[in-house]
Amino acid sequence: MKQAPFIAVEGPIGAGKTTLSSLLAEELNLPIIKEIVEENPFIDRFYQNMDDWSFQLEMFFLCNRYKQLEDTIGQYIAKGKPVISDYHIYKNLIFSERTLKGINRDKYRQIYHILTDDLPRPDIIIYIKADLDTLLSRIAKRSRSFEEGIDKGYLQQLIEDYDVAMASLAVQEPSTVIVTIDGNTIDFVENRLQFEEISAKVKELIQ
Questions:
Q1: Which of 15, 5, 190, 28 is nearest to 87 (CA)?
Q2: Domain ranges, ordered by start, for the chain
Q3: How far is residue 51's CA from residue 169's CA, in Å, rounded to a whole number?
């Protein structure tokens, strides 16, 4: 691969997506697209009552990410410039398949495909894979109030859903390179050498 105009960092809640994408953006001198999380007006209510607020939460995320990708990533890709994002639009399906049910899930799937089927897909996905204890530890460190008391069962299911999703993307998007990082043993924040190994791998792929 001579150039990767679009790099996405993915993983379940607390994996370190934004941290790693920010470090790589600085190291590789790339523009970065960060998803909006805390600005979602439904997020507090969602964690208090997932059944009542999941559709509103997921629709906000979908519309916001769609607008970001359409406006910002499209500008860079159109100019042949690399860009890095701390999410893949596919994450909307990962979460909505777990949080939505019945008619709401069916409606959401339809809207998702209408909005995203013609959006650019990443050339590289950096998938941070981590177990429950690692995620809980990182979630606690960042101290987001709405994540306090996050349901462990929900988080464990997301871990499994992400593994299935990455396998599915490998089939659906065969030209995409998926780089899996073991988040349990690799600390790209505290261990500079481990971060440089990740960075070197990405540089190799985009040269």
A1: 15
A2: 6-206
A3: 28
Task: Please pick, among 51, 86, 151, 187, the residue that the annotation labels catalytic.
Answer: 86
d(CA 18, CA 132): 18
What string of pLDDT tens digits covers the 207 residues of the chain? Answer: 444 579 999 999 999 999 999 999 999 999 999 988 888 888 888 888 888 999 999 999 999 999 998 887 778 887 888 899 999 999 999 999 999 999 999 999 999 999 999 888 899 999 999 999 999 999 988 877 777 778 899 999 999 999 999 999 999 999 899 999 999 999 999 999 999 999 999 999 887
6-206 belongs to which CATH class?
alpha beta
In the annotated binding site for ATP, the residues are 11-19, 138-142
Tokens coding 144: 């987001």
Annotated binding site: which residue ranges? 11-19, 138-142
Q: Tell me how long the chain is.
A: 207
Pairing of strands 32-33, 83-85: parallel
Residue 51 annotated among the catalytic residues of the structure: no
Dihedral pair phi/psi, residue 188, rounded to 5°: -75, -5
